[in-house]
């Protein structure tokens, strides 16, 4: 059962998938498991659906583990999933959100890469093995700044490069699974992609300095979210559009989401203690998840209160 | 599991765009000498790079010769990885 599961530890892919099965069994009234596809090496790609009924509720998407070496993101996602079932019915804001919306969480967005970090190379990087697309792709996918969905400046077609993009959004099975699922669902109102580490909360665009149409709203919402995060453990985040906060990067997840009509699209870069990089010790999992939750809850509440 | 004994992570603070481009030049070296954990983005943001033990002398000389200020964020990556692995094993025992 999940009662013996340690939310303050890192786990392997098998342990996470086993937890998912137990978690869904124990909370079947509000949580279900959906397989949205298979990875390049044919592992299941799983999504948790939190719903109190109805089939086409407006929905919120959260993914962790795009960069599979950043274990803190998967661990934060697992803690968040448990927080949702623990607080539903107690936390008025969350209860209101779930009464009107569904929440989808993809915990291990890149299962092949995650397995690779446990079995072969904990810190895959650009010195990954050159050679066949398969090998490079395993780690190459790790170092993407999100899903390179669209060819454009700053991305290229070399599967061993950091800014690899497939010839089309559907070219990578992990990307295709998300793109197809979100597109087929057709009623997502917010998308939040969780990476680490830089202590940043960013919104579109990444591909250009041109502000999005609801820039002011996203700026104010990001400000509220990082303030809510700060109040928990005093961690300060930068926030703003990707291109003005970080750098101009082509076709990444939140750009694609925004262009697909999802007005509230955000990328998190979780806490950076300045001592561990993405190798954050497990002792930091709970505090990181606790502060991230307050920012997520702020974004979800805004989405609930601003239907479109 | 690949071993990272002696590999270090250096945190570099580039003063300006010129220094940032010097860091980007490192990215293009063949064979790869550094792995950016936080890539060169803008002068106000730190750049973190993993440097294999065998390249440390060369990379530190490169940084110092170009006046790039750096600190050692992680002295030996493998030490952190061993601690992480031990923590996971301990947690697994407790969970059982």
Layout: helices, strands, pairs:
The complex is a heterodimer of chains A (308) and B (96).
Chain A (H helix, E strand, L loop, with lengths): L12 H14 L4 E8 L5 E7 L8 E6 L6 H17 L4 H9 L1 E5 L4 H9 L13 H8 L32 H13 L2 E9 L3 E4 L11 H19 L4 E4 H4 L7 H7 L4 E7 L14 H21 L3
Parallel strand pairs in A: 3-4, 3-5, 5-8, 6-7
Antiparallel strand pairs in A: 1-2, 2-4, 6-8
Chain B lengths: L7 E6 L3 H11 L7 E4 L8 E5 L4 H10 L3 E6 L2 H19 L1
Question: Summed up, what is this model?
Answer:
With 308 residues, chain A is α/β, with parallel strands linked by helices. Helices cover 39% and strands 16% of the residues of chain A.
What does this structure look like?
The complex is a heterodimer of chains A (308) and B (96). Chain A has ten helices and eight strands. Chain A is α/β, with parallel strands linked by helices. Chain A has an eight-stranded mixed beta sheet, sandwiched between helices. Chain A is globular and about 45 Å long. Chain B has 96 residues and is α+β, with helices and mostly antiparallel strands. In chain B, a hairpin with an 8-residue loop joins strand 2 and strand 3. The longest helix of chain B has 19 residues. The interface between A and B is medium-sized, with 29 and 34 residues.
Which structural traits does this protein have?
heterodimer, A: 308 residues, alpha/beta, eight-stranded mixed sheet, 8 strands, 16% strand, globular, B: 96 residues, alpha+beta, four-stranded antiparallel sheet, 4 strands, 42% helix
Uncertain residue ranges of chain A: 126-155
> Cα distance, first to last residue of chain B?
25 Å
Q: What series of H and E elements makes up the topology of chain A?
A: HEEEHHEHHHEEHEHHEH
Radius of gyration of chain B: 16 Å
Average of pLDDT of chain B: 94
Mean pLDDT of chain A: 88
Class inferred from helices and paired strands of chain B: alpha+beta
For the largest beta sheet of chain B, what order do the strands appear in spatially? 2-3-1-4
**Proportion of strand residues of chain A:** 15-25%
Q: How much strand of chain B?
A: 15-25%
Q: How would you sum up the global shape of chain A?
A: globular
Please give the count of helices of chain B: 3
